[in-house]
């Protein structure tokens, strides 16, 4: 009997569910509700697709309804495209007889790919509408996108279908040489602020040439893209102090996704690569965001790489990876990197003054600073570290030890820290007798060290590593290593603060 009762109820359920596809609807009456009345799609470059944005449509009534038509206002000519509850409709533009159940909702996903010529020439906005129903029942949701024109740089495509590549060792990578006499772009070695640049693949500076970046230049790198400076080639980044939060005079290198959701996503593009033999490289007032390696500096030809007033944020591997390089850094800020903020490896000659290195990457092994004199597998395996000097710097982060000094015998390992705040916890006394970490008893290598004190940065997650008078770095610097102006152009008081920023009260 129980079995028969069970089968009876199963039969009822099957009957009910099988009839569910045959529900009756009533026409839409213009009473739809929407999660928003205007969808603002974030700025896109011409001919680069946007992210997908969501609109939720509600039927708050008690009856299932049929929406005769959902379409874009410009119809099949619209540069927007949609899916409606997973349906593609006619080219993603027009949808007929869409059912929406009582007390239910549906999702519309919207994206766009448009050209600057499609936009309003006065404000560069491209607009359209999503139309629901028609006549007296017509309802609208506005669509608005800002389209930004740009200079697009990418490898040539040849008649045989192949594309231009760059020889890197025994391999070839997707890339091209910048041309100072390009028939379309003109001088590709001179980057200006007139338009942003979007680079696909690796753009290379040819031997004997210099790439110059004017103040205010914006360069956006596509995935797996970057800049390569060849042997005997140079790069000069000539940013300047800005007076507003828009960083109008800063040179900025970042990815080509402009949506807020991508503003701090690491690893969106490759690197700025100073290859073996590159020369006379200079960076001033440069911001590098969301790269795999911010700056990769390898075996330069003996000239010093000058890095001043520069910020490097959210690198998936290294902020700076230097290998047998020669670097002079002043007012340099590196925040958040998957492996190390600054890695001075395989020997070299390094001097950093009034710099801030912080690493709050979400792991237990990242560091703010790594210094060594070897490269496993190389020939020779060790090279001289002739100098690694840090003056008036902050070396901090979320890990217990934010500095690693790795020395191998067989080559020089010369380092010195003067008036620096360093986070280094001697957990379980494992470094008590380690010769490279004698902060308080080794005046040859350490002077005026502040250990494990909080610099109290303003907002680390927002890359605001400013300090105020409550910071342990306040007025702890040595005037012998003074850089008169901080990274923002503010005059340093005496005695100077540690790090790249002159202390100021935080905003209330």
Please describe the topology of this protein.
Layout: H1 2-18, E1 26-27, E2 33-34, E3 38-45, E4 53-59, E5 65-72, E6 80-84, E7 94-100, E8 104-112, E9 125-132, E10 139-148, E11 151-153, E12 165-168, E13 171-177, E14 190-191, E15 197-199, E16 202-205, E17 210-213, E18 218-221, E19 226-229, E20 234-238, E21 251-255, E22 269-274, E23 282-284, E24 286-289, E25 291-298, E26 305-315, E27 318-337, E28 340-353, E29 356-359, E30 367-372, E31 385-391, E32 394-397, E33 403-406, E34 416-418, E35 421-422, E36 446-447, E37 450-451
Rg result: 29 Å
Number of distinct beta strands: 37
Mean pLDDT: 93
* Number of structurally distinct domains: 2
Number of helices: 1
Helix content: under 10%
Strand content: 35-45%
Distance between the termini: 75 Å
**Computed structural class:** mainly beta
Residue windows where pLDDT falls under 50 for at least 5 positions: 1-21
């Amino acid at each position: 009997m129980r079995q028969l009762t069970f089968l009876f109820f199963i039969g009822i359920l099957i009957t009910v569910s099988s009839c569910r596809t045959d529900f009756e609807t009533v026409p839409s009456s213009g009473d739809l509700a929407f999660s928003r009345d205007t969808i603002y799609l974030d700025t896109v470059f011409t001919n680069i697709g946007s992210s997908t944005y969501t609109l939720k449509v509600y039927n708050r009534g008690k009856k299932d309804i049929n929406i005769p038509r959902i379409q874009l206002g410009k119809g099949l000519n619209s540069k927007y495209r949609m899916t409606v509850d997973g349906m593609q409709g006619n080219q993603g533009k027009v949808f007929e007889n869409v059912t929406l159940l009582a007390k239910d909702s549906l999702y519309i996903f919207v994206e766009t790919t448009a050209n600057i010529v499609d936009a309003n020439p006065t404000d560069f906005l491209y607009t359209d509408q999503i139309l629901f129903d028609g006549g007296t029942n017509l309802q609208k949701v506005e669509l608005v996108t800002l389209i930004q024109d740009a200079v697009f740089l990418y490898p040539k495509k040849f008649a045989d279908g192949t594309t231009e590549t760059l020889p890197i060792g025994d391999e070839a990578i997707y890339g091209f040489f910048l041309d100072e006499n390009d028939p379309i772009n003109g001088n590709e070695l001179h980057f200006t602020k007139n338009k942003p640049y979007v680079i696909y693949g690796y753009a290379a500076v040819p031997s004997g040439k210099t790439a110059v970046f004017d103040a205010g230049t914006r360069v956006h790198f596509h995935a797996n893209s970057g800049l390569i400076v060849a042997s005997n080639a140079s790069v000069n980044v000539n940013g300047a102090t800005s007076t507003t939060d828009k960083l109008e005079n800063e040179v900025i290198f970042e990815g080509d996704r402009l949506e807020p959701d991508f503003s701090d996503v690491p690893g969106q593009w490759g690197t700025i690569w100073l290859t073996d033999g590159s020369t006379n490289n200079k960076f001033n007032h440069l911001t590098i965001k969301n790269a795999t390696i911010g700056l990769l500096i390898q075996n330069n030809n003996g000239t010093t790489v000058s890095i001043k007033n520069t910020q490097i944020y959210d690198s998936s591997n290294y902020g700076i990876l230097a290998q047998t390089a020669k670097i002079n850094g002043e007012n340099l800020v590196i925040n958040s990197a998957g492996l190390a903020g600054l890695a001075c490896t395989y020997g070299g000659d390094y001097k950093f003054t009034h710099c801030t290195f912080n690493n709050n990457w979400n792991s237990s092994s990242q560091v703010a600073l790594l210094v060594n004199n070897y490269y496993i597998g190389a020939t020779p395996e060790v090279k001289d570290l002739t100098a690694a000097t840090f003056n008036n710097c902050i070396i901090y982060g979320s890990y217990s030890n934010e500095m690693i000094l790795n020395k191998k015998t067989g080559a020089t390992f010369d380092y010195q820290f003067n008036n620096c705040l360093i986070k280094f916890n001697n957990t379980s006394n494992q470094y008590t007798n380690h010769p490279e970490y004698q902060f308080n008893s080794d005046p040859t290598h350490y002077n005026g060290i502040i250990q494990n004190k909080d610099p109290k940065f303003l907002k680390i997650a927002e890359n605001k590593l400013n300090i105020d008078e409550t910071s342990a770095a306040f007025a702890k610097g040595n005037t012998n290593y003074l850089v008169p102006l901080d990274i923002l152009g503010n005059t340093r008081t005496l005695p100077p603060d540690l790090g790249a920023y002159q202390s100021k009260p935080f905003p209330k």
